[in-house]
Amino acid sequence: MRSVASARVRIRARLASALAALLVASCSTENAANGPEFFDPFLGAVPELRSAAVSVVMLPGMSVPDPDEVEPQSDGLDELEFALWESGDAIWLEPSDSGPASHRYARLAPGQVAALVAELKARIASTARREVMVFDTSHEQICVRTKGRELLLVSCHELFESNPNLVALSYGIAPLEGRTREDALAKEPAEFLAFRQAWSDAKQAIRAALPKDGDLVDRAQLATLGLK
Q1: N or C: which end of the chain has fewer CB within 10 A?
Q2: What is the pLDDT of residue 209?
Q3: In whole angstroms, how far apart are CA 122 and each of 41, 54, 58, 76, 184?
Q4: Are the C-beta atoms of residues 173 and 18 closer than 8 Å to each other?
Q5: What share of the chain is helix, strand, coil (3-state, %, to 5)?
Q6: Running along the chain, 228 residues long, what does each successive block of 10 average in pLDDT?
Q7: 11: Cα separation from own chain's centroid
Q8: Angle at 199 (CA atoms; ends 196, 205), nearest 5 degrees
Q9: Residue ranges of the alpha helices (H) in the chain?
Q10: Confidence (pLDDT) at 182
Q11: Structure confidence at residue 29 (pLDDT)
Q12: Rounded distance, CA 176 to CA 227, Å?
């Protein structure tokens, strides 16, 4: 599962390069005590999202139109990367699909849902830092709901690092300037590295849970699934 389609990645990578050239962008240092709260990028237009046991969405930031890019047709769900309900219904974005419908639908077994929710809950709950923010830029939000409680990780580091010349550090985004990412991260605080590992583990767990295929769906079909 890739976080965004290739055209959007290129746009954000160029934006990231410009920001890094101007300054080392500062990151917030949010911790678990007052961690991030759920934000709905659809502002209620996709009510099913509020009941998803697990969701991964894009939180759009400052928009910089690229005159050389032509946006593909969209069903309005571009910011929805993955959603899973307790019923086992799963929706996920397949950037390789083209056309007005780019999401897939399938149903997971109840045991798979419970296992994924438990794994993500444990990883997020054990992480002191839960947010890496650079203001006015896009972020990804991973949300797990269990027993009326929401646990979240929010970060922009993967989006910035889609540019091979940038690295997300604990204090901001910086150019690599010939270094490898491993070298650049070697002296970072343990709490920040633990956040990055928790994020990576969460994404890998979600990818592993995805079926190998699924039915293409658009917004209208999603509304007929009765997801609650």
Answers
A1: C
A2: 94
A3: 25, 13, 23, 32, 28
A4: no
A5: 35, 25, 45
A6: 43 43 48 76 86 94 58 69 93 75 88 96 94 92 92 96 96 94 96 96 95 83 67
A7: 17
A8: 140
A9: 6-22, 110-125, 157-160, 181-185, 190-209, 219-223
A10: 96
A11: 46
A12: 44
Task: Give the pLDDT confidence score for residue 34 in this predicted structure.
Answer: 63
- Look at the chain and count its residues: 228
Buried b / exposed e along 104-131 (16+ C-beta atoms within 10 A): bbbebeeebbeebbebbbebbeebebbb
Six-digit token pair at 127?
């992480």
The closest of 29, 87, 22, 24 to 53, measured between CA atoms, is 87
CA contacts within 13 A on the Cβ side of 216: 10
Q: What is the pLDDT of residue 208?
A: 95
pLDDT at 23: 41
- pLDDT reported for residue 146: 86
Rounded to whole angstroms, the Cα distance separating 79 from 72 reads 14
- Neighbouring CB atoms inside 10 A of 77's CB total 22
Residue 136's pLDDT is: 87
Start-end of H helices in 24-109:
none
Give CA–CA dist 198/123, Å, rounded. Answer: 6
Q: How far apart are CA 78 and CA 214, in angstroms?
A: 18
Question: Shortest CA distance to 31 belongs to which of 94, 124, 141?
Answer: 124
Tracing tokens 């590295």 back to the chain, one arrives at 193
